[in-house]
Amino acid sequence: MEARAKIPPGLPRPNPTVSYWQDPPSEIADLRSTQDLPRSADYAIISSGISGAFVAYNILQRTSQARVVLLEARQACSGATGRNGGHTKAASYRSFVDHEKHYGLDEGVKIARMEFANIRATHAFAARHNIDCDSTPCDTVDIIYDRGHLESGRKAIEHMQQTMGSDDPAAEYKVYSAKEATAMFLTPGALGAFQYPAGSINSYKFTIGVLRLCLQQGLNLQTNTPALSITPSTSHIQPSWTIQTARGEIATPNLILATNGYTPHLLAQTQGLIVPLRGQITAQRPGSKLPPAGLPTTYSFIYENGYEYMIPRPPGTAHAGDIVIGGGLGRLPNDGASEFGETDDAAVHPALSEYLTDCTAGYFGENWGEDDADGRVRREWSGIMGSSADGLPYVGPVPGEPGLWMNASFNGHGMVLCLKCAEALVGRMLGGEIERRELEGWFPRTLWMSEERTKRKFVGRLNQKAPGEAEFGEREEEGRNGWNREC
Ligand SMILES: Cc1cc2nc3c(=O)[nH]c(=O)nc-3n(C[C@H](O)[C@H](O)[C@H](O)COP(=O)(O)OP(=O)(O)OC[C@H]3O[C@@H](n4cnc5c(N)ncnc54)[C@H](O)[C@@H]3O)c2cc1C
Hints:
The chain is α/β, with parallel strands linked by helices. Helix content is 29%, strand content 21%. It has 12 helices and 19 strands. The chain has helices at 2-5, 50-62, 93-103, 105-128, 147-164, 178-185, 203-216, 263-266, 350-364, 414-430, 433-442, 451-454, and strands spanning 43-46, 68-71, 136-144, 174-177, 192-200, 220-222, 229-232, 241-245, 248-252, 255-257, 274-284, 298-303, 306-312, 323-327, 377-388, 394-397, 404-408, 457-458, 479-480. A hairpin with an 8-residue loop joins strand 7 (229-232) and strand 8 (241-245). The longest helix is centred in the N-terminal third of the chain and has 24 residues, at 105-128. The two termini are 21 Å apart. Bound molecules: flavin-adenine dinucleotide.
């Protein structure tokens, strides 16, 4: 894992696989708001994923006169956000015990509450702004196939409800026996299940919607313009940064990197701290015996050393009833170690293609029925996540680099964190003393970038212990892994 963490990510690759969500592409996919790059900007953001879009949105909400430029290497929203599972699901019980152990109970509670608030806020934002993105708040179920996970999960849920209060919506869970889980969720072989509030969304369309709101407020969007490098100015009077691109340079006093797994290309000190991780996913036509109205909840299937995550396409949407399912890393040799450090989202892993294609009929067994006459798989694609050394994103000013900010490395959990992290980042950048104090009340301090966090060693999934050996998320003291920050 150490060797894989050292692989430089480079720039996003040309001609990536086209995700289910990006077909057809938005009409702003190749937008350049101005023919030439502006020479300077008050704020420059690198990335048009959900993080970059919400950073731009928050800045423009506060300072509508500000000149805000957003650079994107490929098409708009062509990174992880445009190619993910669209699962707005926190699964906070899987990390709560670990967060409490390492950061204290208050912080564990803050993280769980923020994750829940982020999910709610995402769906509410889509509704408030009328963004056509199939936003569907609904319950999710974790179908458990492993005794260790079942026990750890039960204990973690009980502990959350005792410490946070069973009326806390972030601690709302229902626990089902094997018999109940099999009957209710059509999953023979389940040992049990946990059900809780979550949702699904077309995060490509959602983020394009956020970018559109920003464009209406004056955002200058420059797609197909990779930032090749960034350099600080040598002036001591006012810090500033210059972004080098093939189309010229942009100078700015405020540079925000929302570059997820690619961040080390621009910021060498994050090499080995943020590690790209390639994920793979498929969209499948439902089997004939699945409910004609579609499955009412989203799913995760949790087994000894990994999981799959799945959303059914909600009624009334294109291809309603389709099953979007990804994961499978735990089925590869070495728990998928080969996918760490891998940034080739122009390709898919053949073993994962085979596994993901087969697993749906496997999970639903006789409840799947016959495959559609046009075949099971409608589309498959891959995408690049940013894995962090401690499983949490890095938010805030970059230590020792005045004028440079980051909001990056959201693991498989961006739909659960990005909106609130962008709000906090911009609050810290532009807010006054009162706002900063408010931020301390709700934003988990452990997510701020710090010198201390830069010292943690990346260990990836290889640090994962066998079930029963440890509680959820138990990690080595030195290095922390991000496996439980799931989609
Ligand atoms: C297959 C897959 C499935 C997933 N499923 C889920 C899920 O169901 N639920 C969930 O919560 N999370 C999921 N995730 C994770 C989630 O998608 C990410 O955490 C989230 O999208 C991160 O958003 P972001 O804006 O930080 O990064 P991204 O969306 O990756 O955006 C980063 C952008 O920066 C651009 N960029 C990078 N370097 C440069 C440069 N030098 N110059 C210019 N532009 C640059 C990239 O092109 C990219 O568009 C999944 C991820 C993948 C890959």
